[in-house]
Hints:
Lyase, Ornithine Decarboxylase, Chain A, domain 1; 11 helices
Amino acid sequence: MTSTHVIPDWFDERLRGELLAHHSKNSHENGYFVYQLDTLKDHLLQLQQQDVIKLWFAVKANPLSKIIQTLDSAGFNFDVASAGELEQVLAQGVSPQRILNTGPAKSKVQITSFIKQGVNIFVAESLNQLFWLNEAALENNVKPQVLLRVQLQWPEGEKNPLGGNSLTPFGLSVAEWQSIQVVDFQQLDICGLHIFQWGNMLSNEKMFLLWSQMIVPLTELANNIGMRLKILDLGGGLGIDYLQQGNNLSWQKIVADLAVIKERAGVEELWLELGRFAVAECGYYVVPVVDRKVNYQQEQLVLAAGINHLLRPAITDQPFPAMLLRESEKSLHAFDIHGPLCTSMDKLGQLPLPEDTTVGDSIVFGFSGAYGFTESMPFFLCHSLAAEYVYSQGELTEVRSAQPATWYLK
């Protein structure tokens, strides 16, 4: 492969010296995450410079305290899908009135707990959840806003990480929801529909086509069950070009397209729940090389950590882009990159790195601000947990230190 000395667009060169110095002083760390908060703030400001969409942050993408605080300061609201996520968001001082409860596994106990803690906006994903919401609201003398999650099917049978056309537990079909009438749930303000089943979309044109196809079945459903459709929640699914193939979404085009969707659907509010599109680009995962070898003419690098810290590349076949932390003048070469776990799943991709990459070097993976450590499998083989740092105004600050297996083993 040809030589290149161009710093990739996803890496902030100001961090290189800081990370090299950090590596020399913290050689015990098997891998760690760094989040560039100044970059995140600038990105969030750009996303908020519009009046078409109400933006929520899908906490599942990155629940770190400093990330939540930064999004809070930028005016984002929060989509939580578990009691743990709710606790973490509330701990950062976020008002429960700015929290939306999603997720397919809401029990009546959880719903009641959320209501008691002040959460007032829910997505119902089943008939049971709708009945439980009505009962809990009556018991606690509140009237929460409720959106019904709808699962549609399209003629094309494309697969997708979030489900696409596959049958999933997310929401119900139009036919199932048509068995209810809004007037029968007097304790609820059933005012919207939620639909989201396509993840990491990389085409503005395809997203607009899918959004457009949703309008007729959703508006017809609202009419059939006696709902005044005020809110349409399109979830997230806005993609990141992990493979670096030039498939970057245009935010300006997204906003323009959604203005059209909003008008056609006749709704007062249009919501998006952003995850990776909000935070992926601010994050890096840094990990040392512990071995290099050749198998059947293929160069392999074995890292100190792999899917125990960064699982997503293995389950989506979308490698996160990588670079050598130190500078090198050598030509790029394709390496198979593996972690330390005793499973062939532990592979982070085949990626170009300088030919002189060797034991003791550190590799930096980009776009690691979303679906990083908390989506990983950290306990297999009893390796250490990854540390997390934030970088802001030229300073690297530890948020959580690396922890050995003895920290969680009993």
